[in-house]
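Morning. Coffee machine broken again, so started the prediction first thing and wrote up yesterday's gels while waiting. Chain of 144 residues, entered below exactly as on the submission form.
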Amino acid sequence: MLPEEKAAGRIYRLPTEAEWEYACRAGTDTAYSFGDDPTEVTTHAWYNRNSGQDTHPPSQKPPNPWGFSDMHGNAWEWCHNWLYDYPDTPETDPAGPPTGKLHVLRGGGWFHREPDCRSASRFTEDPNSPTKYTGGFRVAYTVR
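Came back before lunch.
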């Protein structure tokens, strides 16, 4: 970590699932941050119909209403959480279990269809798998 980052008290980490979805939705309550129409995914995301079966450099598609690019499609994004069932009651930023076998990824990837690119879509991956790698990551930071 750079000295100025340390001095600012920043702690870099993966976002929780809830933080990731909050940023992806950007104040919306629709299937995607740009609405409910799956035919619009082509305009807003790299996915199996337009990706050429590969990831693309960031920010080539329009950002969401809060300015975040590539929240839908391109590469699944690792979250801090281990896989867990959603709680039956509303919670703010549920943590899930402290350990597990599968980590949660969000956002959809270049090789998936429209439903997997929804704001609420979840995927899992074993972080110790030597043969599979399906995601990228976005960092969050905490200021002490």
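The two ends are 15 Å apart (CA to CA). Going to sketch it on the whiteboard this afternoon.
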